[in-house]
Amino acid sequence: xxxxxxxxxxxxxxxxxxxxxxxFECRSFYGETFSLALLQRTKLLNVExxxxxxxxxxxxxxxxxxxxxxxxxxxxxxYYQNSNDESIRKYLEPLRFKNTPVTNWTLLRSIxxxxxxxxxxxxxxxxxxxxxxxxxxxxxxxxxxxxxxFQYHCFSMAMIGEIYEHTQDEYFKTSFLxxxxxxxxxxxxxxxxxxxGRGQNQSFGYGALIYILSLAYKFTEDKKLLGDIDKVTRFLxxxxxxxxxxxxxxNGVEKNIPKVINMQDQEFVGxxxxxxxxxxxxFMGFFIAKAEEVxxxxxxxxxxxxxxxxxxxxxxxxxxxANYQAVISKSGGYWTNDMPIPYIVTKCKNITPCYGGExxxxxxxxxxxxxxxxxxxxxxxxxxxxxxxxRNNTLWIISPFGLMKRDYIFEDxxxxxxxxxxxxxxxxxxxxxxxxxxxRDRENIKFGGYEYSASGKLKKYTSNExxxxxxxxxxx
Length: 476
What we know:
With 476 residues, this protein is of the alpha+beta class. The protein is built from twelve helices and 16 strands. The chain has a six-stranded antiparallel sheet with strand order 8-9-10-11-16-13, with no helix packed on it. It has a five-stranded antiparallel sheet with strand order 1-2-3-4-5, with no helix packed on it. It has a three-stranded antiparallel sheet with strand order 12-15-14, with no helix packed on it. It starts with 6 loop residues before the first helix and ends with a strand.
């Protein structure tokens, strides 16, 4: 079962890719070192490819303030420890870091120090401080104060799991299993899991997710984790290309391997300016390779199956009906945190989109791409400097501009959504859909153009009523 989407297909792609090329021929930050580690782990590395990868790595500007030391160190350390290739030591001594403060980079520094046996006490202390500050009660670990990214949660859990393996400190095991338990709640029936937060449905996060599920199985022997791995793998294989590669975003939009990205090109919905195709693909393959390395020494003959269960915490609500699953997320912080119209999966596909995208540089995305009331006079969303919370199945947003109350009624074959605005300012209601066939009872709602998210091109509908009601029809 675990050979449906293996590291070998990605590794084989890279081996074939370098037959007539000396480099990736486009920007990369750490693709060379992760490709090296991936090909070594899969026994597909040869002298010619190794030389090409290291020659390209040597040409990268190490004095650039944005050089990704943490990622390159980690991959080189993995390669060195699995190959005993002494020629690699010169790239690791002295051990240097960029010192980006977000959670995933901090934990990556910690495991790199442990792998290199450098400043191990500092590594453990920094990891614990970051976990204490950013892992919330639900098990989710924030990448920064306002960054509820499921993708970076998975990568951070991968680093915490490895820190535990190196230290045998139960603190890290507890943190890791709590984090895995959290993300399992959001693996939907189609295997999709990374639809909230920065990096929605990117290859990077799915590689890390498969790895942490494998590590969790090693630690707990819970057979249902094998079913989770199988489900996620089946989701991924739908997006795999004939040459073994995957797109950077699993949305069915990206058709070609890009040399240069344009953040205003529809083909790159879901991308960020810092994304490089040839960083994320070897990263994904590397962690799937690590996952299979974990699993090959374990009994995987019997697969457990996990039923979909309802879930709620301070940030998220997941509703499960016989016909669908629906997830909502409260508003605030990065645009991609918001899921104010439910993300619905039925018949093994999502019928509503995720929202948001790159918000700090020129891109396809705007605040009108989030389905919340928007003031054309103020050029602001009701989410501006707002506080939001759930009360039962109601989302409340308290903003300097007023108050929004949104009620959800989840029935077997439809979802009713009623939104009321209390404000001195004029706001329009915004709704966004992949396919407007889901929208019923369109009275006082009109078509308003298009917006974008990691799910693709979205149809926008607006209403100027103080109270707006819509019904989302879900076919049985």
